[in-house]
Amino acid sequence: MPLVTSEQMLLDAQKGGYAVGAFNVENMEMVKAVIAAAEELRAPVMLQTTPSTVKYGTLETYFGIVAAEAKKATVPVCLHLDHGSSFELAVQAIKAGYTSVMIDGSHESFEDNIAVSKKVVDVAKACGIPVEAELGKVGGKEDDLEAEADTNTDPMEAKEFVERTGVSSLAIAIGTAHGFYAGTPVLDKERVSEIKKVVSVPLVLHGASGLSDDDVRECVQRGMCKVNFATELRVAYTDAGKKLLAEKPETFDPKKLGVVGMEAVKELVMGRMKVCGCDHKAE
Ligand SMILES: [Zn+2]
C-alpha cells in the first residue's frame, strides 16, 4: 500500500497501550528486512533516516526504495525523517515524499526550540504531515551532533511546548542515550508517567538500542508510543557480513552479504517489535 503518515499509527498505539517500532535504515537491504519483519508480524512500522543517512544517499533515493517496498506490503509503512536538523531539511523531506518528520531543536533554548518546531509544524500541517519534536537532551552521540550532559525533560515545560507548537508527538529525555551504553543506563521511568499525565500527544523514546527488553516494556507501559532503534540494527547488519567473510573469505558477491545482513536485521526487528507490543496490530 502507499506510505501512510505516522499520525493515526501513533494515536492507535497511544489508545492501545503499545508502541510502534521506528527503525533506522541505511540501505535497500535494511529497508527490505524491516518491512519483511513487519509483514511477518502484521505490525505497523516506521522506517527512518537521519540527516547523515540522507547525506549518504539522498532523500529522494530513500523515498524511492521505501515507497517501492511499502507498495508491495500489506501492513502500514511510514517513512520518517529522524532528527531533522533544520527547517529546510524538514521541508525538503516532505517535498521528497516523507510521510512524517522530526525537527530536533533540543540543543537550542526552550524558546528557540519552540520557534523552529512551530515553524515546521505550520508548513507540515498544511501538507498533512505530522511532526515530532524533542524536548530535553538525550545523551550520547546523536548522528553528527554531540549532546552535552543529559538533561531530562521537565513535565510542565513539555506541556507548554506541545501546546505552543502543535506538534503531533514528542521525544522526551529520561536518561537514555544514543549509540550503545558503556554501563547500565539509569532511566527515570517515573518521568514518563508524569509527562504522560500532562501531555496529550504520543511520547517517543530515543536511544533504545542496548536497553533491556524489560526497560523498553516498562517505558511503553508508562506511555511511550514510538520507540527508536538505530545502532543495534547497524551492528547486526555489519556483524552478519563480517561473520560470512570470516567463514567464507572467497565471498565477492554483495548479494551474499546482503542476504545474511537482511536475515540478521529481520530477526532483531521482530524481537523488538514484540517487546514494543506492535505485533498483530495491523490486522
Ligand atoms: Zn534520537
Biggest β-sheet, characterized?
A: 8 strands, parallel, barrel
Shape: globular
CATH architecture: Alpha-Beta Barrel
Instruction: Write down the Rg.
Output: 18 Å
Order of helices and strands: HEHEHHEHEHEEEHEEHEHEHH
Bound molecules: zinc ion
End-to-end separation in angstroms reads 14 Å
Strand content: 15-25%
* Percent in helix: 40-55%
Query: If strands are numbered along the chain, what order do they take across the biggest sheet?
Result: 1-2-3-4-5-8-10-11
Q: What count of domains describes the coordinates? A: 1
Q: Can you count the beta strands?
A: 11
Give the helix/strand class: alpha/beta
- By CATH reckoning, the class would read Alpha Beta
Stated plainly, the CATH topology is called TIM Barrel
